[in-house]
Amino acid sequence: MEQFWAIAITIIAASTPLLIAAIGELVVERSGVLNLGVEGMMIVGAVAGFGATYVTGSYALGMLASMAAGSAMSMLFGFLTLTLLANQVATGLAITLLGIGLSSLLGQDLVGQPIAPLPNFHGINILIVFSFVLVGMVSWFLFRTRLGLKVRAVGDNHTSAHAMGFSVVGLRYACVAFGGACAGLAGGYLAIADTPQWVENMTAGRGWIALALVVFATWLPKRVVLGAYIFGTISILSFVVQTMALNLPSQLLSCTPYLVTIVALVVISRNKRVLRANTPACLGQAFVADR
Amino acid sequence: MKKLLISAAVAALALGGTSAHSADKLKACFVYLGAIGDMGWTYQHNVGVEQVKKELGDKVETVFVENVPEADAAGPIERLARDGCKIIFTTSFGFMEPTLQVAAKYPKVMFEHATGFKAGPNVSTYNAKFYQARYVEGVVAAKMSKTGTAGYIVSFPIPEVVMGINSFMLGAQSVNPNFKVKIVWANTWFDPGKEGDAAKVLFSQGADIIAQHTDSAAAITVAEQQGKLGFGQSSDQIKFGPHAQLTAAVDNWGPYYVRRIKEMLDGSYKSNVQVWDGMAEGTVAMAPFTNMPDDVKALAQKTFDDIKSGKLEPFTGPLTKQDGTTIGDKGKALAAGDILGMNWYVKGIDDKLPQ
Prior knowledge:
Chain A is built from twelve helices and two strands. Chain A is mainly alpha-helical. The mean pLDDT of chain A is 92. Chain B has two domains: 19-129 and 253-277, Rossmann fold (3-Layer(aba) Sandwich); 131-250 and 286-340, 3-Layer(aba) Sandwich (Rossmann fold), CATH 3.40.50.2300. In chain B, 41% of the residues lie in helices and 18% in strands. In chain B, helix 7 (192-204) packs parallel to helix 8 (218-226).
């Protein structure tokens, strides 16, 4: 039983950063903006969160710092794509590269410095709890509030939304900032709670996984939770399988989280009507007000 | 016409001037797989480079390139060769083919490839007998483990990794013949999250000591959090595991780098050699033995001294392979070729080696 609980906790800890980053990106994409810079925002959040915690000793400040850093990166993205109307895909990739490089630069003096991990209750820490609250909040916001409806409208048809009087660019900026904060917090989680240290490139591609999860989950929060947890579960189980010496090739086991998550989400998303209803039709398109 | 002659003379002078200037300092370049901030493999190489700068700083200019992916290494290596590097050290197994490719194009530049096994007219390989340190770690693990099981997090099934596992197991078996090692292949040299997860899984499956052949300090951090024990990797990671780290194998590349560059400077450099230094030459060192009772510390120190002096060789025949066959003559060390090409497990390891 203890073993089961230990594995369960490890799964939850592995899935949480993916979940937080993906939920933030979900809101961004629902508003019609394709932000490929999640990895860059995540890693900047990691270095900022670690740095703040290391310097001040306060985890709260660390988490705030990681959210602020993520938001700042995403605001740069927002300015380039929403105001200057740069190509969203290219800008997102550039932000990722910038984030990785910037975090390495800023984190140079932090390497090798240990901090105590986030206090937890039998392995459950506050960020894990918060991740579920976050999903609930985003779900309620998008589907049960007027503002959420406006966000979805902007993502589906920004011309009509603009004609209705909604501030397309304003709403998008807000969503981008939120997405950045979430990605930053996910990075902060890695550096403060999961493996409390700063090492260059410590996010190791998790931002990309979160990005993919949003798409495969057809922009629905509950499916994002499912996707993140399937991925986390299979990742951890592939290690457990290895320790049982069943002689399955480890390279194959390494593929399984990706394969299983993709298959699971594709199977779930078979309903074409639901698919059409939830895909933000204006994803990635720049908005220029005609009138 | 006069103008042309004058400008040509100035150009020649300038070019002649620059090349004369660059002949003053030997340019030695280093290609790193990861970042100096990995606190492990690459960090230790850089520590070696710092020693070069300290001892030979007035005669040598050092340049390094970090985060070079193994798949795209040929570009950065070639750029270094073009930029006037006289000796280039490529510090990862995966740089083998790119190094040989670029070396063929630049026969006047000397290349040194770490942990590889292919040399060439202007390519040498250098390696360290890390497996010697693994043997000591195995001895300590078997002494300190209450469950008789250690967890071992590894990257890819290359001979260097396999010989490490085998040496660890042999060391452990010398204390406890029934010692068990649970192996997890992370399929990456560096991913702190994944390494940490692997460590958590291993601890939950009955291991209470962790060893690794991956590059971050995540596993020892997890060991510290869970009150378990572990070994640091490549560098002393005691800061991450003050109560968890027993010792660490420390890669001490400084003496080798200084030696080779000095040879370049005084003209005695010979290429196309395959160097395999170990504890005796000081290339493999161990972090202070901590978090263990004095008798274990004494045993560990004795084992270390015996290996260093040559009295004890971990791979001494006859060794029984996992499939039951034996290799090696009684009382004699295994041939270097057999060790460098090791692709089999010793008996007692339950894993199946990925091919």
